[in-house]
Amino acid sequence: MKNLLVVLLIAAMFGACSNGKKSAADSSDKAVSIAAAGATFPMPYYNMVIKNYIKEKGVLVTYGGIGSGGGIKSLKDKVVDFGATDAYLSDEKMAAMPSEIVHIPTCLGAVVIAYNLEGVEGLKLTNELLEGIFMGDITKWNDSKIAANNEGLNLPDQEITFVHRSDGSGTTYIFSDFMTKISTKWADAVGTGKSLQWPVGIGAKGNPGVAGTIKSTPGAIGYVGSEYAFAQKISYAMLKNAAGNYIEPSIESISAAAQGAMPEDTRVMLTNSDDANAYPISGFTWLILYKEQAYDGRSKAQAQGTLEFLDWLISEGAQSQASKVNYAPLPEKAVAQAKTILRSVTYNGEALLK
Amino acid sequence: MKSDTITKYVLLLSSLVILLVSAGMIFSLLGDAIPVFEKFGWRFIISTDWNPTEGRESYGALPFIAGTLSTSLLALIICLPMAFSTALFIAEYFKKSSFSTVLSSMVDLLAGVPSIVYGLWGFYTLRPFIVSLGLDSQGYGIFTSGLILAIMIIPYATSLSAEIIAMVPNELKEAAYALGATRMEVIFNVILPNARSGIIASFILAFGRALGETMAVTMLIGNANIIPTGLFSTGNSMASVIANQFGEADGLKMSALIAIGLLLFVITGIVNAIGKLVIKKLS
Fold first, then answer.
1. Interface of A with B (CB under 8 A)
2. pTM of the model as a whole
3. Could you count the other beta carbons within 10 Å of the beta carbon of residue A70?
4. What stretch of H or E contains A113?
5. CA separation (Å) from A90 to A96, A217, B115?
6. Contacts of B175 (CB under 8 A, 6+ apart)
7. pLDDT per residue as tens digits for the range A253-279
8. Which of A298, B113, B160, B238 would you call most buried, defined as having the most Cβ atoms within 10 angstroms of its Cβ?
């Protein structure tokens, strides 16, 4: 027994030594492994492309879906090579990081308004109706305001049950950001955030929780991440966008939301886009990393490996896979901007990507 | 060393570990809960505001305390007569019958079913049933949660009470029967006085389980952070809000969630203390 322990101890020490050597190795050493953590919303996409990357390049990448907050914290504590978040960092939060960080958009998702009404398909909602329903002013499905906007639909005399998230979530952030933009009443009473003080409704945990509760509760309406709603074939409403068109959420209409002008650092909420074909509750999801990669004794190979993976992630090869798992790929312009940002990332002041 | 001494030290060590763990838990809960009490003071316990939106942050635990206590008390009220009569049935009235053996193993089985299973059953079967009875239009809320909690703790209280009732010395019962007592009289004059403190202890344990129950409640209570306004109102419980919101929490919100954990700890402590007091008074 004792002998076994000694052997294990020695083995562990050797292991530690060889690890130490690897991190100090020169830049030609390709055997880096990249660690990342953050948002759960894009996780199915990241998992899929990471698998392909490992197969193609033999570089080990791991991603932990611990939530956007966790992703930011992990990068701040420097325990990951890059983090992932559904809400970009405010100037204040950026200043609170140990050094300058950059945002890289990776794909787009949306929030769909799902409902459960037997025999009702193609519900159309305007901003006023959304405000009325989610603030609790409209309480019945056959309310004259809903009926006036949905001629031909047989709306039942049923109570509206709003189902929202009970946990903190980037999905809630995008949804509430949109509501804040379209309704001053919502902006005053509720505001934008990952978890909120809800005026009405019941809470359920995670996208599966909300979708499940809507499915099993006649008369329910709620918001669900598009990647989940598309996979689940749940009924969802068409929304009237800023240009006045009723738009159904789809990969194309979500992508269209990112067609407009964007700030150079890509920190922008795409909700309520004025593009004529854009679905109004769409948004980017980002990866975040330090602009200066030489920190905490990181090897140049580690930094190079990280950057190469990110460059590959926004390339055609990876982006074309996004719609397979129900995310919208970045439009060309956003890819170009992301590439420029990646090329501004340095190691000891030298750009890592050419 | 003598084997006696070794035994003594082993026992001492494991007891010390328990002490250390509870002290450590209280210490870390207290430490992390301080920021929220510094900011809101006692208002944290009596405020009904739970607003995690950045810039408007304000935390009050009263809705969750109310939700936890109301669902657990409702569960206890439903559980008391049911568990007590089942325990009597198993341990006294039909002690030797094969039906009681089956029943008793069913009760033990139910006591061991994980709470998520009760939650699923409650969500997909009990809730639609309540809706179809016309009691409530959606079926989420205090009543459904209390009912599922009652169903969860009945086997627990039954199993423990039955053990206690079965432990009442046969000589006492036989003596009572010899004096011409009826079965009812034996139950109320011999068994109950003998088993009283044990039965109460079993209900306190069951109540404690209801207080801390998370999964089944979170699936049925509606997770609306308001003080319940009635039996069929939605609400939220302390354990459920912690389970739901710790994932994305940081800073003050994390501290508020930990403070709720601390309050839950304190409430459970108070319930146990009251129970001990009642037992002491009665025996």
1. 66-70, 73, 159, 161, 166-169, 190-198, 201-205, 216-217, 219-220
2. 0.83
3. 22
4. strand A101-115
5. 10, 37, 41
6. none
7. 999 998 888 888 899 999 999 889 999
8. B238
Q: Tokens in use for B205?
A: 């344990």
- Token readout for B154 is 């009945």
- Please tell me the CATH superfamily of domain A2-22+30-109+283-351, with its number: Periplasmic binding protein-like II (3.40.190.10)
| CA proximity to A61, closest of A32, A23, A95 | A32
CA distance linking residue B69 with residue A256, whole number of Å: 50
Closest in B127, B225, B248 to A167, CB measured: B248
The whole-angstrom separation of Cα B139 and Cα B124 is: 11
Could you tell me which CATH number the domain at B62-282 has?
Answer: 1.10.3720.10
- Nearest-CA neighbor of A113 among A170, A163, A40? A163
Mean pLDDT, chain B, whole residue set: 92
Question: Considering only alpha carbons, which residue of chain B is nearest residue A66?
Answer: B247
ipTM for the whole complex:
0.83
Chain B: closest CA distance from residue A76 (Å): 13
Check if CATH label 3.90.1310.10 holds for domain A110-261+269-281.
no
Where are the alpha helices (H) located in B1-97, listed in sequence order? 3-40, 43-46, 62-88
Q: How far apart are CA A216 and CA B130, in angstroms?
A: 13
Q: Do B234 and A202 touch (CB under 8 A)?
A: yes
